[in-house]
Amino acid sequence: MSKGYWVSVYPADSGPERLAAYDQLAGPAVQAGGGRVLSRLPSSGGRVVAHEAGITQRVVLIEFDSFEQAVAAYESEAYQKALVALPDGFQRDFRIIEGID
């Protein structure tokens, strides 16, 4: 069974403090859904080098044991409540992808 991943890129950084309410709800929802945060740059202090059309703003990578688990976690009631907490006009590029075995 292939792993599943959430990949979020925030093209415009309007301040991490604006995401505080979302982060407080999303973290427990992700954990309850079986997700493991692999990377949250640059807010976690890690390094990033962007090439081509890449950006250096917030990038989040979360791993799940399966693609289906990743989709179910996104569709969960707990995570849907977290989405409501995203600030108006906040931009992000979010996708769920299937890993390669």
Give the strand tally: 4
Structural class by sheet pairing and helices: alpha+beta
> Can you summarize the main beta sheet?
4 strands, antiparallel
Strand content: 15-25%
Question: Portion of residues in helices?
Answer: 25-40%
Note the quaternary state here.
Answer: single chain
Mean pLDDT: 89
What is the 3D shape?
globular
Question: What's the total helix number?
Answer: 3
Task: List low-confidence stretches.
Answer: none
The end-to-end span amounts to: 7 Å
Cross-sheet strand order for the largest sheet:
2-3-1-4
Order of helices and strands: EHEEHHE
Q: What is the CA-atom radius of gyration, in angstroms?
A: 13 Å
Summarize this, please?
With 101 residues, the protein is of the alpha+beta class.
Question: How would the blueprint of this fold be written?
Answer:
Elements: E1 4-9, H1 20-32, E2 36-41, E3 59-64, H2 67-75, H3 77-84, E4 93-98
Antiparallel strand pairs: 1-3, 1-4, 2-3
Helix pairs in contact: 1-3
How would you describe the overall organization of this protein?
The N and C termini lie close together (7 Å). It is globular, with a radius of gyration of 13 Å. It contains 3 helices and 4 strands. The mean pLDDT is 89. With 101 residues, it is α+β, with helices and mostly antiparallel strands. Helix 1 packs antiparallel against helix 3 (77-84). It has a 4-stranded antiparallel β-sheet with strand order 2-3-1-4, covered by helices on one side. It has helices at 20-32, 67-75, 77-84; strands at residues 4-9, 36-41, 59-64, 93-98.
